[in-house]
Amino acid sequence: MGLLEDAQISDALKEAGISAARVKAEVEKLRGGDNRRVESASGDTNFQALKTYGRDLVELSSRYITGRHLPDKAIDLVDEACANVRVQLDSQPEEIDNLERKRIQLEVELHALEKEKDKASKARLVDVRKELDDLRDKLQPLQMKYRKEKERIDEIRSLKQRREELQFTLQEAERRMDLARVADLRYGALQEVDAAIAKLEGETGENLMLTETVGPDQIAEVVSRWTGIPVTRLGQNEKARLIGLADRLHQRVVGQYEAVNAVGEAVLRSRAGLGRPQQPTGSFLFLGPTGVGKTELAKALAEQLFDDENLLVRIDMSEYMEQHSVARLIGAPPGYVGHEEGGQLTEQVRRRPYSVVLFDEVEKAHVAVFNTLLQVLDDGRLTDGQGRTVDFRNTVIIMTSNLGAEHLLAGMVGNSMKVARDLVMQESDA
């Protein structure tokens, strides 16, 4: 039983609402405004990353990670990024590991071929030996570079540990008022260690295999793994992504010039801030016969906006012809079977808020389903069966229908296309 469900406890307590932190305030906190809280939550190593890349952490987590609040999700984000960097330091780079596996495979094949006497095996033996020599020539400089970087990082770690020990000794000497010892440590040993660390850290070159620093790339990788959004899209400028969107869509969807341009312009207007901010990025109704590219355009849009056509939530509306089928979209209410599973629509969008939502054959859905969709189109949000509010503002809503297809086909044969289009619109309005 919750505390507030008990009448006596509820009367004795006063409810105080705590709102989610603002982005600007959290950036200031992570950069040093609330050091003790951050240090206790993330540790000294991660704290430097929090201070340096506070804005990247807060903006990425606030934009792409839903269902959680700041500063919790920002701190968890840098924790996992630091853990990934630490694991990579203790394992071989992927490039070397793949080459090592290939080398072992070729060596096994080489030993097997040496026992064969036929011409085909002997010819293959020559090829394998050449491949193995080329692979070793490629692998050797990479291994030397890896060992050199690993030794440098290990030495930096050792020096930093030595610095911590000296700082602890310095504090002990200060408490004992041993001024001579304090001077020796502060202006002697500590300065030597700091100079050695600075020298080693300054030796970094380009295209490093190993790093012990958490930066924007490492943070973006974690966000990409959590949300499914490719790393390239997280780091890409929004302006560069949207310029030429219609032209790139035309390369995949041929013959639908007007429809593709309308989609591209609508998405561009929304991203430019000219639309209503609480509504989805775009809402479209594609009308036409089967095979003209309605679903293909939805896939192409998902690929261009999110770099992956699989970020397409497809709902077949022929499965929602009954009134009770609304529960399948948003999830069963409490007490009903399947309540804990979530809705087919809300659960997918909650997990991946940046996606294209396709409602196929929308004319077959029950009117109660349309009432639910109206809330999505108008308010950009939907409450699921578990009471969670799902944000649709970063989705693109596409509805397809074959309604009036016969008029369009007739317009292509004899009647004018404008008349056919007017008939389709009249039928869809009805």
From TrEMBL:
Keyword presence, Nucleotidyltransferase: no
One Pfam family matching this protein: AAA_lid_9
SMART domains, A to Z: AAA
One GO term describing the cellular component: cytoplasm
Record keywords, A-Z: ATP-binding, Chaperone, Coiled coil, Nucleotide-binding, Repeat
PROSITE patterns, per the entry: CLP_R, CLPAB_2
UniProt cross-references to CDD domains, sorted A to Z: RecA-like_ClpB_Hsp104-like
Annotated coiled-coil segments of the chain: 89-183
Any GO MF annotation of the entry: ATP binding
InterPro entries named among the record's database cross-references: AAA+_ATPase, ATPase_AAA_core, Clp_R_N, ClpA/B, ClpA/B_CS2, ClpA/ClpB_AAA_lid, ClpA_ClpB, P-loop_NTPase
Domain Clp R: 1-33
Top-level taxon of the source organism: Eukaryota
Family membership noted in the UniProt record: Belongs to the ClpA/ClpB family.
Keyword Ribonucleoprotein part of the UniProt annotation: no
Name listed for the protein in its UniProt record: Clp R domain-containing protein
One GO biological process term: cellular response to heat
